[in-house]
Design brief:
mainly alpha, Rossmann fold, Serine Threonine Protein Phosphatase 5, Tetratricopeptide repeat, DNA Cyclobutane Dipyrimidine Photolyase, subunit A, domain 3, 3 domains, 18 helices, 6% strand, globular, binds flavin-adenine dinucleotide
Length: 409
């Protein structure tokens, strides 16, 4: 059988059910990545991290006799083009949560049905498979703590799977147009190897995981938090692999509140992904899904540009925006503050802030970004109004001003 593996946010060989099925079932096959609407919106740092990650994934594929084909356009256009050169019987892909990505999937399913092609999709984006949830997604608890309590009562996290030993090869004379570039000077490098190196460092070398709960709000040190998000969101590392690594660590060194807290945060990730599947397009709307009072905004472009550039009246906000603009990274504490400032002090539409983050963040994830913004805007599922006192936040989280000095624009 000839197959096509449409790779999306799972740029990995390990713990990848889709690549295993593709390699096991097909004698010949093509692996393709295509630009998405969101990847076209990426600014410089995010684009470079994506390119770097694709280049590293291509290197990994070469070790199993495969190569990565980079589509010029969307997936349907590419499949139609490939079908003229090579007959394909089955298409493999992972299903994603966000609405644009879901729409892309729906188009491909329709295309397969029309052209009598087989297809198979794999649910491997989250820690907990949707079929292992103790409720239907449509009936998921509205607020996070109810969601977490329910899933923790019957937590099923399937173990990661190893790469199959079966191999297949691309069709002979298939023309690959490669535009793969590495960017070694980035603050994070792409690739599965780099992700495992980070995991090894955070768990085994620094053992910073043991103090994660106390340090996770820090803004300056590399080990304040796991810094796994860039790899997690492009799927160079699966959430399941992190948790099974955590179980091993706990068996060896003991569990504590900090080791549990990493699971807690990854449950936040799952919550926002299922939330996105449930509410679809609504997570992008300014009024969101809030039942009750809505916050009004003022569409002031000058104020928004000042916020984007880090030229507001608040030094703490400016430092965070400057770090984001220069590196594509901002700590969780920083993200919460700049979001709160934009919504509650500048009274700008939160959707503008979320769209700017989409361009800039190297760890951009649609469900996590828009979900967190919606939540902080007060139009999501936050049961409390979360308005940060920026000066107080700076005193608590950057008491000596070291962060603000380092990142002063
Ligand atoms: C306005 C705003 C926008 C955000 N946008 C994104 C985004 O685009 N991509 C993204 O990965 N995270 C986003 N986050 C969540 C969080 O800031 C990052 O996940 C975290 O800072 C990444 O660093 P880390 O891997 O060191 O996190 P750690 O603290 O080490 O946490 C480990 C993992 O848990 C998950 N996690 C942690 N905090 C959250 C959270 N608040 N919501 C959901 N999952 C969480 C992430 O997968 C993270 O990698 C956003 C938060 C806010 C407030």
């Amino acid at each position: 059988m000839n197959g096509l593996y449409w790779i999306r946010n799972e740029l990995r060989l390990e713990d990848n059910l889709a690549i295993n099925a593709f390699l096991n079932e097909c004698q010949r096959g093509i692996i393709i990545w295509c630009p998405t609407k969101s990847s076209k919106r990426a600014g410089s740092s995010r684009r470079k991290f994506l390119e770097d990650s694709l280049a590293h994934f291509n290197e990994s594929l070469k070790t199993i006799g495969q190569e990565l084909y980079i589509g010029e356009s969307d997936i349907q256009y590419e499949i139609e083009k490939i079908l003229h050169l090579f007959s394909i019987h089955k298409i493999y892909f992972s299903s994603l949560s966000a609405i644009e990505e879901k729409n892309d999937e729906a188009k491909i399913i329709k295309f397969c049905q029309k052209h009598d092609l087989q297809y198979e999709s794999f649910d491997q984006e989250t820690l907990i498979k949707s079929s292992n949830l103790p409720f239907e997604i449509s009936a998921m608890p509205f607020i996070f703590s109810d969601f977490r309590k329910k899933v923790e009562q019957s937590l099923i996290i399937e173990p990661p799977v190893a790469l199959t030993s079966k191999r297949n090869t691309p069709p002979p004379n298939f023309h690959y147009h490669q535009t793969l570039t590495t960017h070694p000077s980035l603050i994070f490098n792409g690739g599965e190897k780099a992700s495992h190196k980070r995991l090894q460092h955070y768990f085994e070398e620094s053992k910073a995981i043991l103090t994660y709960k106390e340090t996770r709000n820090g803004m300056l040190s590399a080990d304040d938090s796991s810094k796994l998000s860039p790899w997690l969101n492009l799927g160079m590392l699966s959430a399941r692999s992190i948790i099974y690594r955590l179980y091993d660590f706990e068996a060896k060194h003991g569990a504590n509140e900090s080791t549990y807290w990493l699971l807690f945060e990854l449950l936040w990730r799952d919550y926002l992904k299922f939330f996105s599947r449930k509410y679809g397009n609504k997570i992008f709307l300014e009024d969101g899904i809030k039942r009750g009072k809505h916050y009004d905004s003022i569409k002031d472009l000058d104020k928004f540009n000042q916020w984007c550039k880090g030229a507001t009246t608040e030094v703490f906000i400016n430092a965070n925006m400057n770090e984001l603009n220069q590196t594509g990274w901002m700590s969780n504490r920083g993200r919460q503050n700049v979001a709160s400032f934009l919504v509650h002090q500048l009274h700008l539409p939160w959707t503008w802030g979320a769209a700017f983050f989409e361009e800039q963040l190297i760890d951009y994830d649609c469900d996590l970004n828009w979900g967190n913004w919606l939540y902080l805007s007060g139009n999501g599922s936050d049961p409390r109004a979360r308005i940060f006192n920026i000066k107080r936040q700076a005193e608590v989280y950057d008491k000596d001003g070291l962060y603000q000095n380092k990142w002063a624009p």
